[in-house]
Amino acid sequence: MVKPRCEPASATAVVLSLALAVSVEEPASEPASEHASATVVAPGGPGHRSGHLPPQVELGTLADGGLAPAVAAIVERGVRRRPHLANRLTGEVELKVVGPYPPTRVVFSPGHVLVDDGAATTPLLRVEGALADLVALLSTPVGFAGLPNPATPRGRAALALVARGRVRFEGPIGLRRELLRLLRV
For the packed helices 173-183 and 131-138, what is the interaxial angle rounded to 10 degrees? Predict the structure, then answer.
């Protein structure tokens, strides 16, 4: 498998193009996972109790060379397509892209998601990897329990990225699965 390379100047364009990709075959929503972690709670924001309204996604503090706008586009697409998942998540997630990029913080709360550049203060989940590897993981079809589908070549390649340590997760497995299900393209 040939690994695509992204130049730093075009990395944001790659992530934005991934965020804007539209799949006509994928349903707008899916049933909630039975493998939820302790960090997944019932929605509590006004109008979000049923889980059908997507939470508001807000872009916070930006840093030079930061990926928060691109990550916000991916998060916003995910919460629009799967509001029931977005409304169940609560807590802070830190995404660290290897290279000259500052970390990106995503804070999930009932009815609201904040995305900004900067380190998380108390993250429940940390995700780290090269930009191309994170894009490959997010663009892979998800199978049972929110994991990449091992029945497809792309799913096996994505699982290999995690198994080889090229994409690293630190935090509860249930939250990892829910985040992948939410952010998948």
Answer: 80
